[in-house]
Amino acid sequence: MEIILKYFADFTDTQLKQLEALDALYKDWNEKINVISRKDIGSLYERHVLHSLSIAAAYNFDAGNTVLDLGCGGGFPGIPLAIFFPEVQFHMVDSIAKKLKVVEAVANAIGLKNITTQHTRVEAIKDKKFDYVVSRAVAPLKDLWRWSKPIISKNNAQRSEDTPAPGLICLKGGDLALEIQQSGTRPYITSIIDLFPEPYFEEKYILYVPK
Ligand SMILES: C[S@@+](CC[C@H](N)C(=O)[O-])C[C@H]1O[C@@H](n2cnc3c(N)ncnc32)[C@H](O)[C@@H]1O
């Protein structure tokens, strides 16, 4: 938890309690349903919570915005972001139902009200639009963009100055040159190590593709 407080100072008591509760909840649920690699569970706050919150360090969302977490697995990046942005609605989507069971159990246990879940492949969602799609470790950028573009809402001129235009924001690692070229997009790229100078974030990036 210290690593979170090293980079974020302004949490409310509720947010602090919610963040602190994640450790025991994920340790417990991960025994039943594997959502985090066993070698990483001891580094939950750095490798999962802080990694997810890099999106919040780089981008603001406005109250009332809607965000779809594409392939949320056990809840990353959506759960830490939903704690960080309590006024923003997060729709957690995964094609494996039991992973959403973990998301729902964690959200209920910490009283997170701004989360909904949907068991589906994201390509099947045709009836809803979202201001942003966030995603980590799901698919090549080409596919993420192909799936996201139709469900991202049109540009909203009412947003605050530091809030990005609607788009896809995803967490990626390694050499991205070929993946970006094959995606046909020109993402804005943030090196997470510039936000959080910890060795773990070497070669980890936030990619933002505005619609
Ligand atoms: C490696 S896991 C990552 C989970 C989580 N985002 C994280 O970083 O911990 C990839 C997840 O994406 C889901 N997934 C892959 N393709 C999907 C699709 N087209 N629609 C919905 N979920 C998908 C899988 O079921 C899996 O839970």
Characterise this structure.
With 211 residues, the protein is of the alpha/beta class. The protein has a single domain (2-167), classed as 3-Layer(aba) Sandwich (Rossmann fold), CATH 3.40.50.150. It has eight helices and seven strands. It has helices at residues 2-7, 13-32, 44-58, 78-84, 97-109, 141-148, 177-183, 192-195, and strands at 66-70, 89-94, 115-119, 132-136, 167-173, 188-191, 204-210. The longest helix has 20 residues, at 13-32. It is globular. It starts with a helix and ends with a strand. 39% of the residues are buried. S-adenosylmethionine binds at residues 71-74, 76, 93-96, 99, 121-123, 136-139. The site of S-adenosylmethionine has 17 residues, from strand 2. Pfam families: GidB.
Primary descriptors:
single chain; 211 residues; alpha/beta; Rossmann fold; seven-stranded mixed beta sheet; 8 helices; 18% strand; binds S-adenosylmethionine
